Amino acid sequence: TEQAAALEAAGVDLFLLETTMTMAEARAAVLACKSVSAKPVWVTFTCDENGRTPSGTDVLAALIVMQGMGVTAFGLNCVDPAVAEEQLARLHLYTDLPLIAEPSAGLPDLASGKPDYPDNADAFARRTPQWAAAGVRIFGGCCGTAPAHIAALGRAMATVDFSAFPPVEKDPDVIPCASEKEARFITPDVDVGETIQCTDHLMEDILEAEEERPVGALKIEVLDTDDLEIFAREQYAVRDALCLWSDVPELLEGALRAYQGRAFYDGTAELEPEFLARMSEKYGLILL
What we know:
By secondary structure, this protein is an alpha/beta fold. It contains 11 helices and 12 strands.
């Protein structure tokens, strides 16, 4: 927040949270930027060829969480161009956000003792039409790129008719959720199973619910500050879609702040609509 406030005071046009590797750092940075500014917030993660960050998060889960928190663009940087193309094409199916492609100039050869990147400017820019078809609207370069690479991107972009790409059709009954590491999809009538209480056995209860009696989602209730402390400590065990429940606004917000995914709320507590709307805007809480 201190850094974001300094940048806001200096007059930046937008915030770019780049080379993000964990959901926790991304969420903290988005909350920080939005607490001090109404400027656009862009987020880019880095990932391997399987779409996983170094901490194991699927970038689709990251997209779902970041989109819920109100970022204005999402993408990948510091990746091989082929990986960027494959993963952005996958992400495009689940979002209307403008996507960002900011790859490196290929994977470096370190045989000489310093990185030697294989893609010259023209080779780097040749993927521009495919990136555009995959929803990319913001183009850039990371490691190994130089002004010539960016100039080549600009020339390639000028040849693309972005209006020719149709919007992605989505099923309105399929709702994207996410844990810290996994993307999950629910429907409005999702079965949350038996409510899980925040005891000292919360991690074991989460694992049992997910492994032995899977119903598509979990429901965890937070009733007091001790529950909140336990949930914050053990929430990393959640992999399925999560319904968070509390009838105390401060506790529900505390749980949403601690949870490193995108949760939903089933509407069974008597909470004010205005409060729930704020939780949806700030943390991406899905209201069923």
